[in-house]
Design brief:
It is built from 20 helices and no strands. The protein has helices spanning 3-28, 33-38, 45-56, 59-72, 75-106, 111-118, 122-154, 161-209, 213-223, 238-254, 256-263, 268-299, 311-319, 322-359, 365-387, 394-406, 409-417, 423-441, 453-470, 477-484.
Length: 487
């Protein structure tokens, strides 16, 4: 069997299992919005953890982080992993759990729907939907770019970047549109196990091919010693480091596809268990991702800019055989699809629930599900058109999306934690945060101590939320109680 055939066989087996799981989920999915978009709100600990973890891990981690470590070394681990490991579970507790309870009380299916009902303001729902859409679409692009890039490298161009991107989108549409949330969560269990298992195995196998962990690191020390040194300048100076910490730790709960998965939890116990597991598993994943970039700098010197996004597949191609290369491609596809399916489903649910239902009052439940499937296809075509442009590095695109999501966290937090929070506060927060973020990205705001634009966006969003709420009248107490329960 030729190497290309072996890679193709492994990937075909992975895709076949994924489609089979999606078909099984389709048979178990009722044609109601709650069952299609939220899986009946019945996810227990294991499925919930794998769904959240699988959705959270994208090519940003598997390709973008090695690409950053290729240039900046082991300091990248401190730039992200510790903060993520602690920050994400904390936001699940502070925002996710009260939002889950409020969504269940109100029968809300999307984040935009929840906050529109909580604040008695359709305008808040539309503003959140617009922001979610603007920042989720480019983040979806990073996932598909990662799949296309890996497929092109590992097949030596036999499967082109564009063809691979179209294939992955097609498979993801198939099981997502058919089985909804249940299909995406069940496939996430398989996909999460696939990419996590392979990344850990690849870490030790590639190290072994390089002569062992000590020899692999020694090679980097000889050729690029700066990658093993403590970094205190650039992105690692106090100002940029702190502001990036805000982005990376606060952004995940603001991903609408993550918050919707929290809504799908069966109870608080399942979410608490997820919070306990998250830090451990994230560290297990991030350490190999960083070291791939560090070792790759010695193996493949001279990569410039976004070319370093390919360092992980380049290491796999050089040091692992065809079957393992097929598993590497399947692992990256698993990371891509486990996020992409959630993003497609969530955006299509918001288009259906928060836009279409307002335009077509009295829309039948079965029609909602059908519209959600149609929106999934339309979104996929839009993503493919953007992917083919390859606009920037994975890290740069993700950083833009992360910064935008952070401007929404004051609204998400205060909406479920502060009874005095108002619709005017939410709208002022979203508007001020995004305006400040845009001005900062355009270089029209100063950057003292090297702070990143996200710091301006968050500060403005907090100020807008407080000022807007204190200067306006809150919703009637029955409206607040219906969402948050008694005071």
């Amino acid at each position: 069997m030729s190497p290309l055939a072996a890679i193709g066989l492994v990937v075909a087996a992975y895709l076949a299992v994924t489609l089979a799981i999606g078909a099984l989920a389709y048979r178990r999915t009722a044609h109601t919005p709650e069952d299609y978009f939220l899986g009946g709100r019945a996810a227990r600990t294991f499925v919930l953890f794998m769904a959240l973890f699988g959705t959270n891990v994208t090519p940003f981690v598997l390709l973008g982080i090695p690409g950053q470590a290729y240039h900046h070394g082991v300091a990248v681990f401190g730039l992200n992993a510790a903060i993520v490991g602690l920050g994400i579970p904390l936001t699940f507790f502070l925002i996710g759990e009260p939002a889950r309870k409020a969504a269940r009380r109100l029968g809300a299916i999307t984040p935009a729907e929840l906050y529109a009902e909580r604040l008695a303001s359709p305008a808040v729902g539309l503003a959140l939907f617009a922001a979610f859409f603007v920042y989720t679409l480019p983040y979806m692009v990073t996932a598909v770019i990662g799949a296309g890039l890996t497929a092109e490298v590992l097949t030596d161009g036999s499967l082109s970047f564009g063809a691979a991107a179209a294939l992955i989108l097609g498979i993801t549409i198939a099981y997502t549109a058919l089985g909804g949330m249940r299909a995406t969560m069940w496939t996430n269990v398989f996909q999460g196990a696939t990419f996590l298992g392979f990344i850990v195995a690849a870490f030790f196998l590639i190290a072994d091919r390089l002569g062992g962990l000590e020899a692999a690191t020694a090679a980097t020390a000889a050729k690029a010693p700066q990658l093993l040194a403590k970094a205190t300048t650039g992105a690692f100076a106090p100002g940029p480091w702190t502001s990036w910490a805000l982005a990376i730790s606060l952004t995940v709960i603001a991903f609408p596809h993550m918050l919707v998965r929290v809504f799908a939890a069966r109870d608080a116990a399942a979410l608490k268990n997820v919070c306990r597991l998250y830090p451990v598993v994230l560290v297990v994943l991030w350490l190999p991702a960083v070291m791939f970039g560090v070792w790759g700098a010695a193996e493949f010197p001279g990569l410039v800019g976004k070319a370093s996004d390919a360092i992980f597949p380049l290491l796999v191609e050089r040091h692992l055989g065809p079957v393992l290369q097929g598993m590497a491609l399947a692992g990256v596809l698993a990371a891509v699809m486990s996020t992409l399916d959630a993003q497609l489903l969530t955006l299509s649910s918001m288009l259906t629930r928060d836009v279409l239902r307002r335009l077509v009052p009295g829309l039948a439940p079965a029609r909602e599900v059908l519209a959600g499937r149609a929106f999934t296809l339309a979104l996929s075509l839009a993503v493919l058109a953007l992917v083919l442009q390859r606009p920037a590095s994975l890290f740069e695109i993700a950083a833009f999306s992360f910064s935008g999501y952070v401007t929404l966290t004051p609204t998400l937090l205060l909406g479920v934690r502060w009874r005095r929070f108002t619709a005017a506060g939410a709208l002022a927060s979203i508007l001020a945060g995004n305006l400040a973020l845009g001005l900062a990205f355009a270089g029209l705001l100063p950057a003292p101590y090297g702070i990143l634009p996200v710091a301006w966006g968050l500060a403005a969003a907090i100020a807008g939320a407080l000022a807007g709420s204190l200067l306006s009248r809150p919703p009637p107490e029955p409206t607040i109680t219906r969402a948050l329960g008694p005071a």
